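Sequence in, structure out.
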Amino acid sequence: IRKTTGLVVGTITTDAEGKGSLSNLVYDTYEIAEKTPPTGYVLSTETYEAEVNSTTAVNVTITNTKEKEKEPEVGSLEIRKKVTGRGGKMKKEFTFVVTFSDGKSYPYEGSKEGMVASGGSILLSHGQSVIITDIPVGVQYTVEEQEANKDGYTTLATGESGTIKDGETEEVVIVNHKDQEPNKPPTGDNTPPPTD
């Protein structure tokens, strides 16, 4: 833009090296503003001045900052297992089938580590837990224990289905309770769990 008239006198398009030029300008002061930044960079909001008063080229440097890569919006899913009652077996592993609406696989860590595919399973015993990470926001999940309400256990599950939210950890807690069978003394594996 020519400063004395306010008229646009030309457009400069930069090359692959970020260089460009405009010639045949009359002596005057010009304002230069960026209209479109290079791909992956933030638009400069500054206006630069260049004074043309000879046939010598005037250099103007416009600095762009790289756009921050957008962090993917993800959340986590924690599965915790508890066994209660004098008849409950604390070391018994229970099978949890995890299903994701996107049908994909995700890593988990905690008492155990690995990958679980949608429809796959994780084995947990009393006091164990895992956190499944990097699940995209909006993915729906279900967690089902295969041994629920079997072998004399009463199963109570909370949070067993839901939708992943950004930056949050959805929590599934599954408690199996089994009272001591009548006329059977407790065995070494039937000790009650520690209280919280």
